[in-house]
Every structure is written in C-alpha cells, then in structure tokens.
Amino acid sequence: IDEHAKIVNAFVAEGCEVYGKVVHSVISVGCYIGKGAIVEDSVVMPDVVIEEGAIVRHAILGEGSKVEANAVVGGTDKEKISVTAKGAVVAAGSHLAPGEMI
To answer: What is the pTM of this model?
Structure first.
C-alpha cells in the first residue's frame, strides 16, 4: 500500500498494490489499483487491474478483469450494481453505466 493511498473502512487482501483510494470495499488477492483510481462500495475479485484515474462505484468486478485508465464503472445510484465478467476489459475512457454488465 503506497504512502499516498487512502483506505477507509475497506478490506484489502494480501498481494495487492494500492496507489489510489478504496472506500467501503473488499479487494481480493493480487489486485492492482493505480494512482488516482477510486474504488467505492464495491467488491473486487482476485487479480483485477484498475488502472490510473479509473473510477469504480457500486460494482462487482470479476476475477482477472481490467478497468483501463480513466474508465468509469458504475455510478452513484446505489440500487444499480455494475458487473464485469471474469476476464472482462472496460476500455480506457469508456463508461459502464450503473446496472450494466459485460
């Protein structure tokens, strides 16, 4: 966990690299959260990569999936959960809307 990372009321498993912000979330083993990335109210399965500047809110990210730089997954609607399948990729700069699945 980087000295500039921020973790608030979250669980981060062994083997993770965290450079961004994690709030009210569960981060499984072997995950990478890049600088400036935000993960809130989400469950991140093993070996997920969340690149720099990506935002993940109210989501479940499948094992081995990837959220590329500056992509957005989910949003502020707490009643709609965004989900990525195992190995899915959310392309750089794109948006997976609340309630959508890939």
So the answer is: 0.96
Other Cβ atoms less than 10 A from the Cβ of 101: the count is 12
Q: Give me the mean pLDDT over the 16-26 stretch.
A: 98
The residue to which tokens 């921020």 are assigned? 6
Q: What is the pLDDT of residues 36-88, one digit of tens each?
A: 999 999 999 999 999 999 999 999 999 999 999 999 999 998 899 999 999 99
Question: Any residues with CB less than 8 A from the CB of 79 and at least 6 apart, and which?
Answer: none
Positions of E strands within 1-102: 6-8, 11-12, 17-18, 21-23, 26-27, 32-33, 38-40, 43-44, 49-50, 55-57, 59-61, 66-67, 72-74, 82-84, 89-90, 95-96
Here the tokens at position 39 are: 């993960």
